[in-house]
Write a structure and sequence with these properties.
528 residues, alpha+beta, elongated
């Protein structure tokens, strides 16, 4: 936890078959795709099976970035789609496109709308797994004083995310000569992929502390929740993030909020772990900061009713995040009734209560996002805070396990867990034209073919910055059109066209790219 000062500031798919008891998840498989350019449509054929023969809701999602996300509009559809669709073979649906789907992929989701048993998922949280993670994580993880252990934990976070089949990425930046890294594991949503819930915590320590509670408990929590939830499907996206440089002043999370959030992403809620493993059950082991009771008298009364015992989890929100706070509290009561949770909401973004801003949730508050800090109270409870005594033996594994269970239940509920499965197609597009990159180019480009001279085939690369009609054709020396490689709507991207001249004679040929806004011609030589 990053310490800033006084509390009061003066005012001026392997476990899917068990998520719903004996009910099995439906199984869907895309068996074929056919581009029907005459009607600007793609026909997708699939099989659907369900052990209980339940009707399913079928939805279609389209990707124009090689399957990284499925957010391309797919509103115009017909056929075996929607609800109810009965199980069977040779099911067909049609997607009517406005831009030629070169390099696109389709995802079909089958949801039988059966209720999911969240408690069964919560019960998978494994205290032995958590303890094993804590044993590995604990140790000085500092960019100068503990670089070896820091690197081991970095590698472990990244490798675990990859092992769980999450979409992994690393946000890298330099801080005072140190190569800082935020590690991200993404579990894409099936039907509202742009809406995202984040589970996060920082992984580094101060220079003198092994950091079991601060913040090894957060790393263990993020890894355990990602291990379990990666086996299931959700309507919304769930992201797991390990932040760097929290102890240097929330540097990693601030960098993520300012530069790491994709333009399409709508962050619906953030749960930030900040020391969640220290538990004390003797009177007056929980300290109350000066001025706290003035702002939060009900919270003080609750703490004092237990004679100041540190036997609860703090759920800290700002007022803007109250709906998220209420959702967490509700899930904790339902799925971990043995866990005592005390929650509160600070005014504004916590300007008057800086001790409630001392972790990676604060940059999200400042940017207007809903976020929670879950904490055991840090230095107001744990006497080992920022010392060499913050070791594994001081952690209450049962308390830590319950905190993880409550969070897992909240995220599963908020993200909309589904009793579903999906299937992803191969690339959809014209034979002979391939999408090299879906990154939108700055301008139209027609490159020189290669090889040149050629016999009998060659490649022609070109770039399209705007959706529109694109014609790519080949002419002989007399100006006769001998081949049309493309003539239709195309989406922005960088493309490669294969031209086969087996049936043509040796000589000079020209290829021409024409759009509503651009025209270019280049020369090539066929030598047989």
């Amino acid at each position: 936890m990053f310490l800033v000062g006084f509390f009061i500031r003066p005012q001026n798919s392997s476990n899917e078959n068990i998520i719903s008891g004996v009910n099995n998840v439906p199984v869907i498989n895309i068996t074929g795709t056919e581009l029907i350019s005459s009607i600007n449509a793609v026909k997708i054929t699939y099989t659907l099976s369900d052990a209980e023969n339940n009707p399913c809701r079928i939805s279609l999602r389209i990707s124009n970035d090689s399957g990284k996300s499925f957010l391309f509009p797919a509103d115009s559809t017909s056929g075996d789609i929607g609800y109810p669709v009965l199980p069977g073979n040779n099911k067909q649906l049609y997607w009517y496109y406005t831009a030629m789907p070169l390099g696109f992929k389709a995802k079909i989701v089958a949801d039988d709308l059966q209720e999911v048993d969240i408690q069964a998922i919560v019960n998978q949280v494994d205290s032995n797994e958590i303890k094993s993670s804590m044993q590995f994580i604990t140790g000085i993880r500092h960019r100068t004083a503990g670089i070896n252990q820091l690197q081991r934990v970095k590698d472990s976070i990244n490798n675990r995310f990859a092992r769980y089949n999450l979409q992994t990425s690393v946000q890298e930046f330099v801080y005072s000569g140190y190569n800082a890294q935020n590690f991200i594991g993404r579990l894409p949503g099936t039907t509202r992929e742009d809406t995202t819930y984040i589970v996060c915590g920082h992984y580094e320590t101060v220079s003198i502390s092994p950091g079991a509670d601060d913040n090894g408990t957060a790393v263990a929590a993020v890894l355990e929740i990602s291990r379990i939830l990666s086996n299931y499907k959700f309507r919304n996206t769930v992201k797991f993030i390990g932040f760097d440089l929290e102890e240097a002043g929330l540097v990693g999370s601030a960098r993520y909020v300012s530069q790491g959030i994709p333009s399409y992403e709508k962050i619906a809620g953030v749960v930030d772990f900040e020391m969640i493993g220290y538990y004390c059950d003797v009177p007056n082991c929980q300290q109350i900061p000066p001025g706290f009771c003035t702002l939060f008298p009900a919270v003080c009364d609750s703490i004092n009713s237990q004679q100041g015992r540190g036997n609860f989890l703090n759920n800290i929100a700002n007022v803007n995040s109250n709906s998220l706070r209420y959702a967490f509290d509700s899930c904790a009561r339902i799925y971990t009734p043995q866990l005592r949770v005390i929650s509160l909401a600070t005014p504004g973004n916590g300007q008057s209560t800086p001790d409630l801003r001392r972790s990676d949730h604060a940059p999200f508050w400042d940017a207007g996002y809903k976020a929670l800090m879950l904490t055991d109270g840090a230095n107001f409870r744990n006497p080992n805070y920022h010392t060499a005594n913050d070791v594994l033996s001081t952690i209450n594994i049962a308390f830590l396990t319950n905190n993880i269970k409550a969070t897992l239940a909240a995220i599963a509920s908020l993200a909309g867990i589904q009793h579903s499965s999906y299937s992803v197609s191969d690339y959809i597009g014209l034979i002979g034209i391939n999408l090299i990159s879906a990154e939108i180019p700055e301008k139209y480009v027609l490159q020189q073919n290669y090889p040149n001279p050629f016999n009998p085939s060659t490649k022609i690369n070109f770039s399209i910055p705007f959706t529109g009609n694109v014609k790519l054709s080949v002419y002989d020396i007399a100006g006769n059109e001998v081949s049309v490689l493309n003539n239709g709507q195309m989406a922005p991207g960088n493309y490669s066209a294969d031209f086969d001249a087996t049936n043509l004679s040796s000589g000079v040929y020209f290829y021409k790219l024409v759009t509503d806004e651009f025209s270019a011609t280049k020369r090539m030589i066929l030598v047989k």
